[in-house]
Records
---
Amino acid sequence: MLGFSKRSPKKSSKDPLEIFDQYEQSIPSHQNAIDALSGWNCAFPPALNLNAGALPLYADDRIAWALQSFGSIEGKKVLEVGPLEGMHTYMLHSHLPARIDAIEANRLCFLRCLVTKQILNIDTASFMLGDIQSWLTERDETYDFALASGVLYHMADPGEFLRLLASRTKAVFIWTHFVLEDAMPEGDVRRLPFSGKVETRMVDGVPVRYYERSYHHANANASFCGGMKDRHFWMHRDDILMLLRKLGYSDIVIRDENLNHPGGPSFSLLARKAPDAS
């Protein structure tokens, strides 16, 4: 026979009518979804009157230049590596591609991308959580255009990433930091995260210099959007260009090179294969 225990219940330290912490009791809104996730880096378009991060990447002139230079992506297949919080995806979506595969390895960034997709109705994009190198290795699909902004310099094996990317993409836009000794001389504070170790690896027959670097525990912050491993490598400027050409990108255009960027020398580039290249 079922019955209730006759033991006196312990007194709760909380009000039994208090709503549990994991529930939102205010009027439903997009702002609630934003607030449910910490560490936002990006802002939303001002017309939406939403509070998130500060970076206006929904109107990034680097991406606008890439799309203008590449030409129409309407009806094309697009790969985005490291979408961060989906604002560049929003820009891609506005140009009517057939599909965007957006691959993000950072769990919090991935969840913030899903919130952005919901708020901005980015219905051409599929955000997926996982390692881009595994994605490129295990799939045989070719993309018309790829976007890898703020990605290369976070990689544990950046040369291999470029090799895999080239096997799946006809054109790619890259914004990245790089090493250039003359631009970062001894004593430059931007050298501090580097260990001083430099190794050369062969990538598709090309010798590529890898400059070892550390995040120095920056990954403890919820807004961290770096690589998967503390030990990561920057490539030399010349090696990036040499490797891309070796990998079949015969047409490379460089834009907004900034040797004085506070994070380290940087540039944008659009690299394309010849129309008849595989």
Note: The helical segments are 30-35, 61-70, 87-93, 107-120, 132-138, 158-166, 237-246.
---
Amino acid sequence: MIKHKYIDRIVLIFVILSLIITIGFMLPGHWGITPAYQLPAYASKLFDQSYVHTIDIQLDNPQNFFDQAQAKEYHVSSITIDGETFDMVGLRVKGNNSLELIDRYGSDRFSLKVEFDHYDSGYHYYGLDKFTLDCSFQDNAYLKNYITYDMMSFMGVPSPLTSYVWVTINQKDWGLFLAIEEPEEAFIRRNYGRNHGVLYKPGYTDVYAPNRDLALQYIDENIESYPNLFDNAKFKITEADKKRLIQSLKILDDNQNIEKAVNIDEVLRYFVVQVFVVNLDSYLGPTGHNYYLYEEDGMISMLPWDYNLAYGTYSLGMPNPSNDITRYVNFPINTPYTKEVMLNRPLYHHVMQHDEYFKQYHQYFQQLISEYFESGYFQNKVEDTIKMIDSYVQKDPTAFCSYQDYLLGVETFQEFCLLRSKSIRGQLEGQLPANLSQQNEESPRIDASHIRLEDMGEIADLYQ
């Protein structure tokens, strides 16, 4: 038995200190400690995926707002989310090619950006600064973005939160949209904490230019050589930030100590999903855009964005579309696009040149196929989602397609994904060719000729 004349006092002090430390860890912000992941209040409000939310947008002159869509300028609005109103919120139309096409065909069903802090830097929705209302353009199933972000999150990639929303404008029914957390300050703090790095949304000013910086190629030491990166920083950046990113690209270009400049694990997980969904309007396609770049302490990673033209539907509506759905179901996982493009995509090409990373890439594909698709998770996710949104789709007054086309779109989307998972299983096991150069009309592949790519959504639906 321990005997000490101050034992009671010592025990009491120890208990008090333990309580203080425990409370400190429960309230990390009080101590200035920021965990790697914090779940903000908005995540359990607007982005609760268990039901369809409601948003009413109040505009003084809605028709004037839509008539000026091409300008993409912010307008003052009031937003009521699930019965709670927020005034002086910035609202503008979102999109480039989709915006132009929707406008050309006489529809006002545009995707929208909602920015709480546009007029007041301190204004927010339970910590959220900005989100998008996606209109499901060329997505008859209303599932492309929703399921892709779910896959990314499933694979551990920092991804935007999403939820379905029934939108009204001045209390007039407008339709079913997908709310998507915009990757800005709130997103970065949620995923990387308060002391986060720098976020970029690289984009081209001329699609026909070389755009080497957009492709994440090292050009030279001059900051002026990287306008597609530095002109598209989401936060205020310093000269030191710019030089640090250039140094990362130089290490990537050298390809000797790539792990010093690339968050390998996160990048591999990202590319597994990116390749699965066959998104050619992306870094792994001819345009090389539609991604976010995150840099912290010289380490870069890629974050997901914009999947309405994924699942092989990028060419739909083009003058000479390639609508061979069997080709896209069997798209190779090792060389996911042509040699000319892939040689100019160092973040994929250089990483995959390392045997250990290439092996790990395949292991993550095994995980996605076995745990997301073969386990039944995917089918259950889609079925639960359809049960939730079906009645809203039926009454959607601005839908790009009919309700019957929606049902066909869901069926086609599910079949595409399940066939794609079978093809990738065959590629991983060596039964099907996993390189583009090995694929031809005579090579073994999963047959998808019984479904049509167009049934997932195409521009022609706008004529209906």
Note: The longest helix spans residues 403-428.
